[in-house]
Write a structure and sequence with these properties.
Strand content: 15-25%
Structural class: alpha+beta
Helix content: 40-55%
Number of strands: 11
CATH architecture of the largest domain: 2-Layer Sandwich
CATH topology of the largest domain: Alpha-Beta Plaits
Largest sheet: 8 strands, mixed
Oligomer: single chain
Order of helices and strands: HHHHEHEEHEEEEEHHEEEHH
Strand order of the largest sheet: 2-3-1-5-4-9-10-11
Radius of gyration: 26 Å
Amino acid sequence: MFDKLENTVKRFEEIGLQLSRPEVGADQNLFRSLARERSQLEPIVAEFLRYKRLQSDVDGHRDIIRNESDADIRALADEELEDLEAQLAQSEQELKFLLIPKDPDDSRDVIVEIRAGTGGEEAALFAGDLYRMYSRYAETRGWRQELISLSEASAGGIKEITVSFVGDDVYGTMKYESGVHRVQRVPATEASGRIHTSAASVAVLPEVEDVDVEINDNDVKTDIFRSGGKGGQNVNKVETAVRLTHIPTGIVVSCQEERSQLKNRQKAMKVLRARLYERQLAAQTAEISAVRKSMVGSGDRSDKIRTYNFPQNRLTDHRIGLTVYNLSDVMDGQLADIIEKLKIADRTARLEAGIEGGGQ
């Protein structure tokens, strides 16, 4: 581990020198790539330097205990040594976490699909609540969001919504939200006060480029139709909505939120690429599915990951056995603490399993 850390420090210093060269500054793509690599290495280097300082302090205190003739000084050194050794062990554990290879998709933007599941109107209302929760959380992170498609329920709520989030470490944060979310609450229309249970599914897909997923034009059937629902004068008058069908896989994507047929097609292609990429990843990681399921689940939409109990203001994440009683705050977008605990559980599980690759 320590040889790898020393090499990391050398690489960090090399990149610093490269970034100061005029020819690198003139090449913006190279400059951004190196700057991104350096920022990823920085926390590892900082923790390693802290570890080395602590190790030096521990060695110094042990030397005092062995060689100092003054009993009071030896006693003081012995007292301080216990705290330093605890800090050193903590730093070593943190270095092990930091050295776990990251999922290469973590830095990508995402496409989030939320669909109402079992529970009728209440499920649609809950799907809308989940969208608002993620939207508010995105605001706290400074992420930009863009609506791709929306199907609203007749009695309010959302049947299905697809939205993209753009920003720093979006997939690395949002990927833990994939799965089935279950809600327990008394619907507004329930006169007897009986608690109903319904569900919504969430899929978080890393947004990919053309180079990541090659799509043959002959494999895609394009249908153009008139938009429906809200949308102003353009709705139902001009055929701008786009439906793409990927013939080999049967994946169907539609978009009608834009007034331009071209923009709708571009958004639909973005979602199609993401779904095909998700399928590729699933095939590539099938052999390690048991590991991927670990403590935080596989992210499969069939996995029930969380229960939202409104009468008790309680949220339970079933993957890590976490229960909190601030559901109202969570629904208002305060997801940071829960996601951080999921990240720690994920890193711990992969460290214990000795996984050499990234991913959930």
